[in-house]
Amino acid sequence: MADQLAVLLPVAAVWVAAAVVADGLPRLDRARALRRRTGWVSALVLTGLALTAAVLFTGLQNAGGTAVDRAAGRLALAAVPALLVAVCTVRRVRRLRAGAGPSASTG
Prior knowledge:
Layout: H1 2-23, H2 31-61, H3 67-104
Helix pairs in contact: 1-2, 1-3, 2-3
């Protein structure tokens, strides 16, 4: 169990960091800060997707009993909902970032 946790903990940490940064977006009052934070959210979401895909791909590619294999089995349950949320998040954050673009240069 501890070895699975060692594999899944960095993935979970990236997703939690993305959630914390995204949670602070509505409280921002400056366009420049909004644009910077949306960049961070985008980067964290894409990193989370990459880490999730890497664990799934590595773990499901072989049928061994390693920590990555067992972690991939647990992570596969959350992969589809995470992918759907990430697609919606990236789309909305890109629109928000584009909207903050013209204002960021003036304020």
